[in-house]
Amino acid sequence: MGTIVYQNAQRSAPGVRPDHHPGESPALVPSESTPIAVIVPTRHEADSVRPLYDNLSAALRGYDWQLVFVDDSDDDTVDRLAELADHDPRVSVLHRPPGRREGGLGGAVLAGFAATPAEVLVVMDADGQHPAEVVPGLARMVRSGAADLAVATRYRGRGSAAGLHGRFRQQASQACRRLVHALLPRTRRSTDPLSGFFAVRRAVVDGVALRPIGYKILLEILVHGRWSSLGEAEYTFRPRLQGDSKSGLAEGRRFLRHVRALRHGRPAPAPIAGPLRILIFTSEVAPVVSGIATSMGNLSRSLTAAGHHVDVVSRADFPHFIRREFRFSGFALSWPGFRKRLDNYDVVNVHGPVPTMSDAFLLLAASRRRRPAVVYTHHSDLAIPGLHGACVVYNRVHRHIARLADAVLVSSLEYQARMRTRSGPPVEIIPWGVDTRRVRARPPRPAGALRVLFVGQLRPYKGAHVLLDAVDDLSGVSVTLIGDGPERPRLEARAAGIPGARVLGRVGDEDLWHAYSTHDVIVLPSLTTAEAYGLVLGEGMAAGCVPVASDLPGVREVVGDSGLLVAPGDVEGLRDALKRLATDDALLGRLAAAGLPRGREMSVEAATRRHDEVFRTVLERVGTRRAPALVNRTTHS
Asked: Which GO terms describe its biological process (predicted)?
């Protein structure tokens, strides 16, 4: 592996003219030999860094330059960067491991400033939207003394923001620019105060307390930096080559808080840094076998691997009663003792709805003025056969109770629309993560056979009996049922009369992923809205299976255009879908190819990163004034 820097480099103090007085803009005029450092924050951009290096090398030919990558990735981006560092000594890499990524992208830029002694600092992205050929012009303005700060602008002359994806983002960018100009007069010197592409003289930022929120580091420099002259270079903002946009609702809220803090002359609040103490409060965990239990295990292990302290509490830790679909908890009786434990945590992630448990926690925790941040994860609406009316009333009441949380998490757009209210907490989407490390190579498919797989609890609402009815007398189709539950004896008896049908019962993880790799279709024939995601669909797609599922809220978003949907309980519809796949190899191959990357993008690591971001965003908003564990650590640090 190439050179990976873990400590800040020592640098000499910048030169200042003798007539410079404290409080004035620095008057440093770099010589022609002044080195240029290009600071590039990266996060999961493995395929972008080599093209960026090649383009910069060509653009800066003849200059004294260095390239500093500050990497917050959890994929193989750091390996690609190390290869560049091995190839060219002018390239250095500062990799920030989980738990050490203070300040997000803005913090990464500041870490890059500290890691180089260069006097001219250029900041740009790695995703291809900032053209490398603009860098020399920005650097020349600063090196020559023509400007203390040089900004690449999309909003002047021949500049263009065409690379912003969609009309909404373009309009939002313009609105934010106008807001900043209206509220922060010093930013009016730049036509693009929210640019992420600029060059700055080191003396402008040295010794200045910069505490950016999110990724608008230039905004902080414009307001707090020691500069007097500003230049601009027009450029066209290009479409993104790789990676995801950093914009979003959470980032928008950070931006507004940042502007407000700058408007009132206050330093922005410090981002929540370091490992968090997290309590996951859920209905089911291992050894229970269910999608929720699997998801909780994946999430807790991945958060722990990222450096956080994670405890998990489930219904099994309190007196409870379970009879088929009726499940009640005595958690409320344990509240007096349990609430004392809450002072040990920064965040409690409550999963529901679990009548008498998740709703009881939200109501009881709301009565405490000082408590951890509470993030509620809504899995699905309650749906119990025979109690439709009661479930409708409960779901309506539970949505109001969910507003007591500081943020709500859901797994789909449809549930985001259901849970969002005008005056309620923010509702964020985080799809459940697939443990893609377990994916196996697929052996060749036997000719003339369609191998169908069902994975789940053998309960009536899961619809396994619908699947068996659908494959009865269906030529060339075999079906395997994996799982256990009260319906198993009836399903085994039914499968005994169907050629090629078998019920394996519960299996271990290795056998489960072997089954995914040796079947062609994963079927989720659930009958009610108690099924709102279908983790097994994501696992099956990641292993190369085509998803066939009931057309239910949330579930249809997981399937997307990678599979087939049928009406819940429609035996003939399911039969027709399986017959199409059994007789059309081209369709089967096309859907499998579409689902493979889709399933692997639903990784545990991606879900964990989003949970980490939401937890920290909530703590930035409420933690320092309320969460006892966080306040105590801050006070004694």
From this structure: carbohydrate derivative biosynthetic process
